[in-house]
What we know:
Elements: H1 2-34, H2 55-66, H3 73-80, H4 84-94, H5 101-118, H6 121-136, H7 142-161, H8 165-181, H9 185-201, H10 205-216, H11 224-241, H12 244-256, H13 264-292, H14 316-333, H15 337-349, H16 353-362, H17 364-372, H18 378-393, H19 397-414, H20 417-431, H21 436-449, H22 454-470, H23 474-501, H24 509-528, H25 538-560, H26 573-579, E1 585-592, E2 596-602, E3 609-614, H27 622-637, H28 645-655, E4 669-673, E5 699-701, E6 720-724, H29 745-755, E7 758-762, H30 768-777, E8 782-791, E9 799-801, E10 806-808, H31 809-821, E11 829-837, H32 845-854, E12 859-863, H33 869-884, H34 886-889, H35 893-905, H36 915-918, E13 921-925
Parallel strand pairs: 1-4, 4-5, 6-7, 6-8, 8-11, 11-12
Antiparallel strand pairs: 1-2, 2-3, 8-9, 9-10, 12-13
Amino acid sequence: MLNKGTAFYHRLMSGLRRQARFxxxxxxxxxxxLGIQLLSPNPADSTVRFPDADLTAMMLAEEITxxxxxxxxEGVTLxxxxxxAEAAAAWQRALELPxxxxxxxxxxxxxxxxxxxxxxxxxxxxxxxxxxxxxxSLPDGDxxxxxxxxxxxTQGRLEMSQGKLSEGLEKxxxxxxxxxxxxxxxxxxxxxxxxxxxxxxxxxxxDSLKMLMPLEENIDKQPDSQKAISxxxxxxxLFSIGDFEQSWCYLQKGLATDISMSxxxxxxxxNLSMGNTAWAIFQREKDLKNQTNTDKNIDDLVICQxxxxxxxxxxxxxxxxxxKTYYAEVVANSYAPTTRLEAKLNWLRLLGKDERKSExxxxxxxxxxxxxxxxxxxxxxxxxxxxAMMMNEVGDRTRxxxxxxxxxxxAQTLDDRRSLSYAIGYMGHIQESxxxxxxxxxxxxxxxLAKDAPDIAYQWDWQLGRILKAEGKQTEAITxxxxxxxxxxxxxxxxxxxxxxxxxxxxxxxxTFRERVEPVYRELVDLLLPAAESxxxxxxxxxxxxxxxxxxxxxxxxxxxxxxxxxxxxEKIEEILEKFDNTxxxxxxxxxxxxxxxxxxxxxxxxLEYYSVMFPENQENRQEMADFIEVFSDSIQQGVxxxxxxxxxxxYDLLIQPLSNLQTSQTTTLVFVLDDILRPIPMAALSDGTQxxxxxxxxxxxxGLRQIDFNPWPQRGLEVLAAGFExxxxxxxxxxxxxxxxxxxxxxxxxxxxxxxGKKIINTSFSKDNLESEMNLFPFPVIHMTTHGxxxxxxxxxxxxxxxxxxxxxxxDELLRSNQRASAEAIELLVLSACETAKGDKRAALGLAGxxxxxxxxxxxxxxxxxxxxxxxxxxxxxxxELAKKEETKATKAExxxxxxxxxxxxxxxxxxxxxxxxxFIVVGNWQ
Length: 928
């Protein structure tokens, strides 16, 4: 049987490796063509987002239409049709006409606006200064104030266009005050929309949303043209933080308004943003599909929850088609050169690498003409940068460098530090393979320019660290990687806090996190723990743990979409490690790097120990290792034969055998902090060839060092709230995964009550409201739920079912904390029976970790996969029997669970001896 199982295992693994290589090649090719970064990317392998649509120009275009004195109408018409040079000439002629003083000031204001569109910055500045000088000499009054507010807004736009974002923001705040004083509601809204845009450029997303969200309530009261602009601004802001569904909803509403021809630029901008959002949804869903390894239709992707907007049901591929359609619409109909070119470049990125190269070569003359037609502006700089990165990706380095030099020259002319930093930094990236010394100089210069732009600065610190590492300058490289990580921590906390302030917003930070954040942490740890170093210093080991702790918390917060509580002065790592000296526990901290697993071990009263283990033979990278783990897990879940033993021995040799100095006894608990792809491994099933690991030690899993509660079980009564239901409930139809009815629930709950006193709620009584009510009445230290549940990498697919409805991971927090409100004590133990990690989801353990954290429980017992009802009843009967004797035996929770697992492994039922039935049960959190 062993030989047969082993042969099956090798055949399956071999086929899987071949498929995995093909899939990885395809995915990497696609992501490289998009500039999306994989786990060890170059920081510069991404695109620069174009500046958003010019809201000031749009709103001023509307103002021109509604309040234009006679004699200025010719310029109005020309401006509305994008003929900015002719509009400027017409307004210049209009200044020779006999106009009222306020009208003259307004004309100079409009003239500045036209020069800004043309990139004539000096003329634009002179014109707006002339307007303000004229207004200064006029007596105060509403008419003067209205023109003054417009001119100050135009001045703010000028500063914004030149990269002087803080100065532009100050001007717009001043304009808002004037509009408020004269009761001009439309002016106030327009100015606030512009402020929100600048706040977004500054990376202040939360402040931007605080500015925008109150406007949503009054959008319907605005004129259609301004209504469309408001929806555009809301859509772009929500897109920036990753809430693509709501972004799509607002943009779609914007297109549904009656957009006048005077604001055709609004329509083009809405179409462009729709294309960008469609593409983002497509890429995210492809990414999730890769994570879950399924081919499901995304029928439950709710794009707009508003009743007046049609719901879109689509698979990811359809969003790619939608993106192409919207981009084509912009290319065909927009008169704004920058908008057309952005749509063209984004459309090119939808093509495969070879197809894109051919298309660029065929249309290069047209592309050059489009570039030449651009006015000097940040949008023009970004267009050249993005095109340069595409040229570099398709192998045309000469054109890439020419485009970047043009971008550098133009950014210097504009005195735009932000766009100049991008252009120089990307030039440094291209120079890496030719002249690393030059690459370092350029990247350092880009970094200096980004002092006030942390969202850019971290990329150049990352790039510098990578270049210095390649040159063997490890210490300098670590310095820059550390700076990049620290900057990311600050940026990420700002994004995570959005979900706390705006619970209606679903900022999809996971997508960004996996591609742009996680690699920096891991590459820094790789530097701190180099493969060739067998004895890193204690300082480096502690620093590596600090970095990984930050990563663990970042992953959890990204998944939970909230900020975990933080102490003003968090415990130092060495202080946490010292607490292990007072326990019968050994910490085994795993870190997955590009080609190996690093193990940091803390035994009581010992210094940190370090082990580095290369991936097994034929596991060439993290992805193949992840596939190998999935096959191992599947072989156990099949529950027949001995095919799992090969994997059990391989992972024992990887994670346990190297710990040659492990001084333990059968009362010593092994506490694992499992990283990344290792989380789905049932540690209890690892085997040295003669014994399973659970036969040697009690086992526990911690989410991270700072998530461990070291306090023992407090001396209080042991009461349990046991809940569950049998059969099929109404909540089955409210989740998008197939579920089978659960049996033996009544038997299990009765068994629990025989061991521990408490309250039982079953079937229809197990409603969400009733559960909360019971928890409010009495502070149960143990909560048991026998119900369907799933742990997924997608928070919307992480849930436990009550009879009437699913309880998602975000809701679980408030529900279970109602139990804590009944007393000052936390939930001591949460037991989730019949729950499982999502099949094929490589990051589903995040869902399990998320449930454990959101539950507010000191310990959680759950399963990695769903086990049969009969074996579960038998195991949990033993678990609660041992738990009831806890005060007498002084057994820890990990020891109690071990006894229950051994009862199946060593019991009379031969079938239950297979690890399928007992190894998926794990203790998460406090094991004492």
